[in-house]
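Dear U.,

For the methods section draft, I wanted the exact inputs and outputs in one place so we can describe them consistently. I've listed the two proteins in the order they'll appear in the manuscript figures. Please don't edit the token lines directly; just add comments below if something needs changing.

First protein:
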Amino acid sequence: MNSRQRRGVILLLLSVLCALGAFAGVLSVVSDVKSEVGPEVTAYQLRTSVQPYTPLNTGQFEKIRMPKRWLSPNAVTDLAQIQGKIAVTALRQGSLLQSDMIVNQPALQPGQQEVAIMIDAATGVAGKITPGATVNVYATFAGQREGDPAQSKIIVTGARVLDVGEITALDPNADDKNRQSAETVPITFALSTIDAQRITYAESFAQRVRLALVGPGGGAGVPAQDRTYELAKDK
């Protein structure tokens, strides 16, 4: 091997050593960054601004990932925490949701009453209705006289659910010809006086009472002409 070849080999070895050194440096930097940033966790930030004392729902937030070490101890990492809560102050779009931004929703507003009724667990709840939800209440009634058509009525709109109790099995020996479900669940509502009367009347005399969940941001109001349904009048 002549001197030129030896120089070439030496330069090649030096190049390899430099490359290995650079690679080791990159790995070191990446390792340092990971050690400084740490593992990522889920957090939630506001899609839109929320006014004070506004009920919260999942549609107002979006999930993000961020380093755990940069997240404050009171940051909300599970949206189940907002159930039945309201904003305690104005929440700005893009802000991270924190537990000190929210408080429990007041159980009753002025003029409201707390009313609980038993609802068919299968047709009335089906595991989808939780405290803080807004529902419309439907009831079906037989005709008042023989030959009169049966009717379905929306008896209460925009009822706020305060609590959902434990599912209870009905007495199998109970004399209830209209009963189709073997399980019921107590639902507690915050209602005005007239709505409390309507819902207790339906529980006592309707053939069936059903709850319809109102989606976040959706209007619960129903025009008067659309509150009663008869099959014969359906066009």
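Second protein (the one for the lower panel):
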Amino acid sequence: MKRRAIAWVVAVGLLGGSSAYAETTITVAAFPALDAAVKAAIPLYRKLRPEVQIKLVSLAYADHHVAMTTSLATGSNLPDVMAVEVGFIGKFAESGGLEDLGKPPYSALQYKDKYARFTLPQAQGANGALAAVPADIGPGTLLYRKDLMDKAGVSEADLTRSWESYIEAGKKLKAATGAYLIAAAGDLKEIYIRSGLKDGDGVYFDKAGKSLVDTPRFVKAFELAKAARVAGVDAKVSPWTNEWSEGFKRGQLASQMMGAWLAGHLSTWLAPNTKGAWRAAQLPGGAYASWGGSFYAIPSKGANKAEAWEFVKFMTLNKQMQIEAFRQVDAFPALVEAMNDSFIDAPIEFLGNQKARLLWKTAAEHIPAIDVDKYDAIAQEIVNAELEKVLEEDKVIPKALADAKAQIERRARRR
């Protein structure tokens, strides 16, 4: 009996049942609203791994990514698990400060068929290293106020037939209701530059690192934004400002193109008073694009990499957890198995009981696996600045894009 007890104690020790292991705490750094998914995960994960404590550190979106950039550069104040929005993946993937999750002991590429097909390529650097794995995705969608469109005699087909018909519909809407079609003309540019891409294409750079911002795709995107401004259908309001939120609450903004997750933001805090008035549609002109998406990475200098990886797998490969995140924050799952769950078929009360998730699933299946570049964030900043000059100062589009390309190449050389 005594020998059996000793054997049990040894076995527990070998399985990680020591007091040191029991007291393991992993730190997860995230941002709103992804932090809500982590909060929801903590009690569920504790049932599976009661010996692992999870400490959540959450900062505002921009502050989080600035802090993580600094931590990776200095090797200090690093979390065990780091949430990364897709716009920063390219930069972080090239930093050299993250574990290559494609290699042992992680070998995450074995799960590539489990994730939406376009996600893992987004997280691979130029050297092929896998910097992160996807938690959620942002299928691009058009959300619109059906009540306002009905009042103006505008149909969903008018909104989606083409980009030009979308702007024309905005003119009718403005004349009949006084509401603006979109918050900012730049929204058209943001979606258009991400549409029509093929697997392996980049938004701002090609595979050789050459800037693409003077190509016909960007010319057309700038032309659409300019046309919207000339037509007077944009409210000249920047996303995520108080004016933006108030515009939704007061019915002054009648549509918005973003990731499908925006429906959740509208229903919970942006404009809950507009419940039932909104509908979802595919993007104009038959376009499919990804808008946002979140990943989890593991810093190379993290203290608890094995435990961190177990938690990352729970957040990204566990169907129940993916569905729970979907319920909590409308984070459209990156896991294909979760996409095929019956929850996708459920009507969304905020959207007039529309089964909008089926639309978003279709969009997700059509989104190409595009490449990311470490200079994407810089290119976006420069392109946005040049677009403002086109919209506000009547700068001619070819000159604006030529100047943007020159600035991008200059900034890239300096770095």
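Candidate sentences for the figure legend, describing the second protein: The domain at 24-137+292-364 is CATH 3.40.190.10 (D-Maltodextrin-Binding Protein; domain 2). The longest helix spans residues 376-393.

Thanks,
Y.
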